[in-house]
Design brief:
Keywords: Signal
InterPro entries: Rcpt_L-dom, Rcpt_L-dom_sf, SPS2_domain
Radius of gyration: 31 Å
Number of strands: 46
Number of domains: 5
Distance between the termini: 36 Å
Protein name: Receptor L-domain domain-containing protein
Pfam families: Recep_L_domain
Strand content: 15-25%
Helix content: 10-25%
Length: about 725
């Protein structure tokens, strides 16, 4: 067996690649990598004697009429998930390739393909879970397998490889490719085509009868759709299509759905969902778009939309859709709206009693104007995700002359605006408008931001707004408990509590709010008794004296805080938690971080909210506790970083709150650093004192990342990594 193994390595070609491991002391050696190509062919009566501990191999070549069973192949490949130089399966008698479990696959030799499956006469199914192959790169080649039916496997292949694939000559391919002019292609298109690749272009030369005949079995378009200059009254000939999609992140080109200048078009008459395309619907004078149409057209990723449409509600309109009258007044807005059509106006007549209606609002098809109001926050829009213009010459977001406004769409719920008009935020003297927010609200035109407290990062210093001691209105949100349910007046302990009810008081009353204090040396095991009062907490003093709204210090018996910080929507300024010897914050950190961002001081408790990086990261790492599960600050890896030390110290880190820099290293990937344990790299740019960045530059040997960390709230730079 050993002689056969040697012959495989030395007699078969290796395409010029060096075989064998690097020196074990080089820093590049990985004990779980097998440093030779694997050949499996019809001359073999047994598989190579490869240690089952190996997870990474070089190239894999499988060919010929194999005498090996599927069970033997399954056991051999059980732990192998990384194929450094690709997979080729050709001219075999295999019926399935389900024994392969790839997670990472790179280019095969000098081709553009990472996986090649060619001329396998008995192959009926591929069986590879491409959805799990998170790092399957480049092209896949599947050709001339006469029994292979791909219809059930196309979703996974398309999701992973998008337009980077070559598939033809099989029993059932992944759809039909449109070649040349669509009207001419349609005449020869097979009626068995169930998916089309390319752009479906319908115009004044299109034949309605031919469209109705040929498109009846098409359920998917992977590409664009254009319907322009037709005389059709509806598009019911496309009613069988379930989805029109493209992977905007991986596709070689972007695509559109364009429905333009159709003078007789009354209704769409199709139910196709859109995912990953631009959308333009305009200049169709008779067309009426329903809420069902919009649900379908905005089903998935919307790159942008250019709409000038008329909306029509009917008896099939879902209850979560609401139509705002021309008044634009909140008082006229129905309850329970998720999607709102119309132009909503909040001004000096804003009615807090009705503001709960905005809490569940997610989408506005129209515009939002906030002008001359006394609002200090827009937290009543806590679920708002997008504003989409549906008519020309209407500013989608107009925030003007609000002297008390201090916060606008805080958090990461709001994702942007789709419009051809520029949003305007102007003359709000206490409102800081940060750079990140400016990028969120940019439409096809740059936002007009001026005369606010801060304007998209102008100047290096952030001005301090005039301190406002008046508490926020606390009746904004649905679900706030009625005061007599949670407190009783001292004069009537068993009564309704109406004598002690600040809900009915004027907001300027000096007794409207008060401070809750406990001694710093107390015997409480939790401060969850504050859950009632912890809905509105402002700083006790002027910010020039202290920046904290809550201080929890020197409580030797405190084991948990217990405050629901997620419900404390108006907890402002800082949090100070220190010197509580039995306090374990591991399970409470998420809500604390969500509410306070970087405005917190948490030290010297039993378990703090992570560890703060001090000074140079490489120096800090040598003394870092192995119990650190979250890091605050910038993780900087460079040519001085020690892989062994990183493996040891970072094994328990699941989150970094700050930046990550990988520059000038010799790493081939970041799996050597056990970074796969990190789940999230995050920073709150709306509350953090400084912005952060993930930066990966000038790493000449870096082949792939190999980390699963998600990014939230950071800039991203990846460049000058040639491999």
């Amino acid at each position: 067996m050993y002689i056969i193994f040697l012959l495989i390595h030395f007699l078969f070609p290796t395409n010029g690649r060096e075989q064998g491991p690097p020196p074990e002391d080089s820093g590049l050696f990985n004990e779980f990598e097998y440093y030779y190509d694997i050949y499996i062919n019809e001359s073999m009566i047994a598989l190579p004697d490869v240690d089952p501990k190996y997870e990474i191999v070089q190239a894999v070549y499988i060919s010929g009429n194999l005498k090996l069973s599927e069970r033997e192949l399954l056991i051999f490949f059980k732990n192998i998930n990384t194929f450094r130089y690709g997979i080729r399966v050709n001219n075999t008698n295999l019926e399935s390739l389900s024994f392969l479990k790839p997670y990472i696959v790179n280019n095969l030799d000098d081709t553009v393909n990472s996986v090649e499956i060619i001329n396998n006469q008995n192959l009926k199914t591929i069986g590879i879970d491409f959805e799990n192959c998170n790092f399957c790169y480049n092209n896949i080649l599947i050709i001339n397998n006469p029994k292979l039916d791909l219809k059930e496997e196309c979703d996974g292949i398309i999701m992973r490889y998008s337009s980077y694939r070559t598939i033809f000559g099989n029993h059932a391919d992944c759809g039909c490719e449109i070649k040349g002019d669509f009207n001419k292609f349609l005449t020869t298109m097979s009626p068995s085509c169930w998916m089309l690749f390319g752009n479906v272009t319908i115009d004044q030369n299109s034949n309605l009868a031919l469209l109705t005949e040929k498109m009846i079995n098409v359920t998917r378009i992977n590409g664009g759709l254009s319907v322009t200059n037709t005389i059709f009254t509806n598009l019911s000939f496309l009613s069988s299509i379930e989805i029109i999609q493209i992977d905007a992140y991986k596709s070689q080109y972007l695509a559109n759905i364009d429905i333009i200048n159709n003078t007789n078009l009354l209704t769409l008459g199709m139910k196709a969902k859109r995912d990953g395309l631009y959308l333009t619907i305009r200049d169709n004078p008779k067309l009426c778009i329903t809420s069902q149409d919009l649900d379908n057209l905005f089903y998935g990723l919307s790159l942008d939309s250019n709409l000038d449409i008329k909306l029509c509600f009917n008896n099939e309109t879902s209850s979560y859709w609401c139509q705002l009258p021309d008044s634009g007044d909140l008082n006229d807005m129905p309850d329970g709206c998720h999607n709102l059509t119309g132009n909503l106006v909040l001004d000096n007549n804003f009615n807090f009693a009705n503001s709960y209606k905005l809490y569940d609002l997610q989408l506005i098809y129209g515009s939002l104007t906030i002008t001359n109001s006394s609002l200090r926050t827009t937290n009543m829009f806590s679920s708002l995700q997008r504003i989409r213009s549906i008519e020309d010459n209407t500013i989608p977001l107009n925030v003007l002359n609000n002297t008390k406004l201090r916060k606008l769409f805080s958090g990461f719920t709001f994702k942007g605006i789709e419009s051809g008009m520029a949003p305007t935020v102007e003359n709000n003297i206490n409102l800081p408008v940060y750079v990140v927010f400016c990028s969120f609200i940019k439409t096809r035109k740059a936002a007009i931001i001026k005369k606010n407290l801060q304007n998209c990062g102008d100047g290096s210093n952030i001005p301090v707004p005039k301190y406002d001691r008046t508490p926020y209105n606390i009746d904004v949100f649905r679900g706030v408990p009625i005061y007599f349910d949670v407190s009783h007046g001292s004069e009537n302990p068993g009564g309704s509590g109406m004598l002690n009810n600040p809900w009915d008081r004027n907001s300027t009353d000096v007794d409207y709010s008060y401070d809750v204090e406990t001694t710093t040396e107390n015997s409480e095991k939790a401060v969850s008794f504050l859950f009632v009062t912890a809905y509105v907490i402002s700083a006790k003093y002027h910010p020039t004296i202290t920046e904290n709204s809550i201080e929890i210090m020197n409580n030797p018996y405190l084991t948990k805080i217990g405050i629901d910080f997620e419900a404390c929507r108006f907890c402002e300024h800082g949090l100070n938690v220190k010197n509580n010897s039995q306090l374990n914050l591991a399970k409470e950190c998420d809500k604390i971080i969500m509410r306070y961002g970087s405005y917190r001081t948490i030290i010297d408790n039993l378990v703090d909210c992570g560890c703060t990086i001090r000074g140079d990261f490489n120096d800090y790492l040598s003394t870092m506790s192995s119990k650190c599960w979250m890091l605050f600050g910038n993780v900087n890896l460079d040519d001085k970083s020690n892989i062994t030390l990183l493996q040891e110290k970072m094994s328990s880190v699941t989150r970094t709150n700050g930046g990550l820099s990988v520059t000038n290293t010799n790493f081939e990937n970041l799996t050597f650093l056990t970074f796969s344990t990190i789940e999230m790299i995050e920073n709150d740019p709306q509350k953090s004192e400084k912005t952060a960045e993930i930066k990966m530059t000038n790493n000449p040997n870096l082949i792939f990342l190999g980390l699963n960390a998600k990014r939230d709230g950071l800039y991203l730079t990846i460049r000058d990594n040639p491999k």
